[in-house]
Amino acid sequence: MAEPRWPGTAELEVVRPGPLTTVQDLGRRGVAHLGVPRAGALDEPALRAVNRLVGNPDGAAALETTLGGVALRALARCVVAVGGAPAPVTVDGRPGAWGAAVTLRPGAVVEVGPATHGVRSYLAVAGGFAVPAVLGSRSADLLSGLGPAPLAAGDRLPVGPAGDAPRADLVPLPAPPGELVLRLRLGPHDDWFAAVPGLARSIYRVAAASNRVALRTEGPPLARARGGELPSAGMVLGAVQVPPDGQPVVFLADHPTTGGYPVVGVVPHADLAAAGQARPGTVVRFLPVRD
Amino acid sequence: MADGPIVRRVGEDALLVELDSAERVAALYTLLTARRAELPAITEIVPAARTVLLDGVADRRALARLLAGWAVPEHPPAEGPLVEIPTRYDGADLAEVAARWGVSAEAAVRIHSAPEYRVAFCGFAPGFGYLTGLPAGYEVPRRATPRSSVPAGSVALAGPYTGVYPRSSPGGWQLLGRTAAALWDLGREPAALLAPGVRVRFTPVARHG
Fold first, then answer.
1. What is the pLDDT of residues A5-51, one digit of tens each?
2. How far is CA A98 from CA A26, A80, A89, in A?
3. Residue B46 to residue A146, Cβ atoms within 8 A
4. A33 vs B14, B49, B196: nearest CB
5. pTM of the model
6. Last residue of a domain, one of B45, B68, B91
7. Which distant-in-sequence residues (6+ apart) come within 8 Å of A41 by Cβ?
8. What CATH number is given for A179-289 in this structure?
9. Distances from the Cα of A40 to the Cαs of A22, A250, A276, B180, in angstroms?
10. Judgement on whether residues B95 and B149 belong to the same structural domain of the protein
11. B-chain residues near A30 (CB < 8 A)
């Protein structure tokens, strides 16, 4: 039996960590000037939804899985809910509810299976996962290594005291994207590229190298209208950087705070949850908008 | 020059302020942090090489109008916190850098430890500061092949910048030496020893303490 990695009351034990499962909340703010990425759940509406199902504040820390789910044993009675990417949920091998609160008896094992659509499922527990906060957040930041490491078998996850907030019975379940349409607010460097007006007609696909740092795309290279290099500049969530190979890279939560490639435009926050759920191979279209 | 800086809109709620020199970036960053309480709420103020990014701005239109009217001084104020970095100049690339500068290793150490530096911005890793202050003409390229592991505390050069690796990581900068100073400490406020605006001196030492 592994030693607990965190102090406090261990209440959920990792039986199967899945390919990549991390603790995520709404991320870090106010520290980008120190080189600290924001981190946080890639599918924020899903994080908020599972928290509401168990009566947590929207930004409580939950688990974010990646394609393959996770299995946890309850060491004390607790209430959990699974949402985000649809996946089979079982409790001690029997079918459990997805998108609804589930009460676990001590010793019960809740298993989130492989996602049937999308990439990232979220599992919230009433009281939230009480791993220590680092710079104001419990999120794992996989670019810089801040926050808790990805889950490993045998980890014991502390759970905070459950509040008495009313629980939502039902949360809307967005359909996973068959095609990812990302609006793009042009600038600040759209004038570095030749073919921006035609961008809406180009078809890109989600590249396999995508991760929590960025959604990488493959498609017709976006040609430069000018040469030269850009000195390092601050980067925002959703920025679409275009490196010399011309393949757009959409910055997600663990993005670096500065970057040296031109930014053709920025994807609005509302479109980023779908980007976080798009599997490799999914068709991507960028839809330039001006405000 | 009464012209204000160029202010570009970025995404939904950010502004990118463009300036013509690192010195004016430092000057604007100092002004913004000093006047932050009087400005519309801003979540992040991120200086970089020739820009300051203002992200998560509550009233972007009002802030852009304000900034366009600011006269940004040519230079940042001379005062500000000063950090001393005791450095043992025994880096793997010291001889190569000295050769590039056409001087002895001893003279290269004197050249590097003479100026007062300033943290222009952070990036690459939490607490990794890009320091300006090395006189023009001493720029060096990155190594053609980055090292897979650079030890924590390595004092290094690339382009016009000096940096200190806060922890062991891959890296392509030229290694001049090493310090035992704690560059990143989550128990400290701020966690970064070399936060933007901090003035820095490198002091040659024979041995780490």
1. 555 566 999 999 999 999 999 999 999 999 999 999 999 999 999 99
2. 22, 10, 6
3. no
4. B196
5. 0.94
6. B68
7. A24, A25, A26, A27, A47, A62, A64, A120, A122, A139, A253
8. 2.40.100.10
9. 10, 16, 12, 32
10. yes
11. 43-44
